[in-house]
Amino acid sequence: MEHVSGKAYTSFGYLDLQHKQGFLTEKSDIYSFGVVLFEILYGRLAWAEDCKDHNETLGPLAKIFYEEGKLDEIVFVGIQEQLRPESLSIFASMAYQCLPDKSESRPTASELVIQLNKALDVQVSCFYFTKYMAIFQCTLYQLLYIC
Question: How many C-beta atoms surround the C-beta of residue 66 within 10 A?
C-alpha cells in the first residue's frame, strides 16, 4: 500500500473509508470510479458544499437509493432518455458494485471493463436494431402505399 498525502483529502466525496484512513489502493480507485459512474447517472457532483460528513456524499446516498430500488427517482432525465433500460441497469449495477465499504468486495478494473463493454454492446445493438427497424418500416410503408 502507498501512503496518501493530505492533498488527497480535497476530493472527499470520492474517497472510501480506507482512503480516509490514509491508504490508497487500487480498490480505493474502484470506489472513486463507482462514485463517478453515479455522478453520470444522477447528473450531480459527489460532494455538495453543504455536506457535513461522508454519509451525505453521493456514494453512500446512491447505495441507499440502489438498495431501496429507487434509482428511477433520482437518475438524471437526460441519461434516462438516452440509455436503454437494460444498459442503464448494467451501468447502475456496476456503479453499485464499486461502493462496498470492504474493499475486497469490490470488482477489479478488468471486471469493470467487461461490464462496461456489455452495457455498450446492449446500447449499440439496440441503436442499430431501432435504426434498421425504422428503415424497414419506411420500406414496408412505401411498398404498401405503392401497391
Answer: 19
